[in-house]
């Protein structure tokens, strides 16, 4: 029995296909202007990887992410907060705090021993502390997102950057460039400013170990390391790509729903 | 949601709530009678009714922006006063013949001063409202009410007798009684009306003649008693907050599958939980009602215990599974209240979510995500059922 979870984020669409409690296929693609199209493209690619004929071969599909409610072939939608908690818990049942830094928002989720959400905090409407912020700052530093993370990891003396608004932080970065600051230290300062932003949400919910970082930005090792230093506790690395955690949670819900349906 | 209504009463209430002006208001104005804008609650609308005028709770539903306000306010002022002032400058609230305000918060104080300077409504009156709830404060406010009554009489050349005041109090009490009857129906396992519709009914009461409103609400209640109940909902939710005059917000929450069955809102249960006393001198009764009797909002010092108790009492009485509290960004009074409520409700095992919402609802994606996640979190661990 194959089931799928689709996480339709603002920057990327993620699909996880599961077969009997095993991840059979995963895919991450750039989002298009239509969630329906992104979902169709992503699911087709994930299915073809394991020789399936896409939607018709899937027993149950759960959607999550900002585009979750507008896709015709999704059986049910579940919020990304619940899905990230479920996915992270499946990867490591000891996880109690999930920090999801996505393309347009970030969340801190407190999880119990059953993988259920106890409490959560979510950022406001602005792009502070999200992938969009990293993209804008990398553009200002004229580098790719990977180069941006590598630069920050080399920083020995991160600049102090106080603005967390993408637009105003950009002005602050331009001033630092003009003042002759090293690119590494500007990147390091930006990472620290985002971690401060995350900390304000983490303290609201509590940082109970074990802590995991999920979402696309979790691939940024400079962010992971800065967070570990600030929290004073290690951030767990999972065996699967942290970017697919939400889609994985959705697939796990799909699996449970399909089992109920087939009873 | 499957509530069906045969008549057009509910649609009329919805229309009234969704627009700054409505048919009843236009009819009132056409007949030569006056309308007095009331700035926020704690205004004794009964005095205006007794003067033969229509109390209109100021609102800026449908406002498109605040650009005309910006020169008069700073970045720390809330969206409510900015949108309202913008509507005022545009002339959209030009039907009011007077404006009466209390010093509810600093934003409203600045609003009143700016309105005085720029818009110049023919009659304006400002009443300092006590910061504390106590008998001494009620006596002080009674003097303010006497001043307000005298000033209305003088400016509009009317006479507000005790008999007229008593009659007005009875009329407004009748509105509150009918509204409480509406709330009683929400206690049912399958309430016959959605939370968004109830909110529209409540908001409509603030911009209609009370006689007409009471007749319409009586008609609606008759329909509701025989109507089908709503069963296709997941959780029962209570909404807590201050200024919320847009039923669309409740609609967005309910679009996630729950039913809003109770509230502690300025337009909601806090405004109707108690009646004004009819056995004592009318102005004293009105002052005591606003300062001592009605459930307070966080603006009034010394009421934290009662406020928390009120929320818990309503949550239990209406068998809610969770509480969503809302605040307009930059509202300091409700900011601290949210911190207070989180701790209090946590202590009593009542699930709670806080939301910041703009006065004019625009992007609803994040509200939906948070509400959906909250409902998913509380399903299975329902409180009080």
TrEMBL record, chain A:
Transmembrane segments: none annotated. Keywords: Iron, Iron-sulfur, Metal-binding. Its cofactor is [4Fe-4S] cluster. This is CoA activase. CDD domains: ASKHA_NBD_BcrAD_BadFG_HgdC_HadI. GO terms for molecular function: iron-sulfur cluster binding; metal ion binding. It comes from the Bacteria. Residues 5-254 form the ATPase BadF/BadG/BcrA/BcrD type domain. Pfam families: BcrAD_BadFG.
TrEMBL record, chain B:
This is 2-hydroxyacyl-CoA dehydratase. One of its GO terms (molecular function) is iron-sulfur cluster binding. Keywords: Iron, Iron-sulfur, Metal-binding. The keyword Metal-binding applies. InterPro entries: FldB/FldC_alpha/beta. Belongs to the FldB/FldC dehydratase alpha/beta subunit family. Gene3D superfamilies: 1.20.1270.370, 3.40.50.11890, 3.40.50.11900. The keyword Iron applies. Transmembrane segments: none annotated. It comes from the Bacteria. The lineage of its organism: Bacteria, Pseudomonadati, Deferribacterota, Deferribacteres, Deferribacterales.
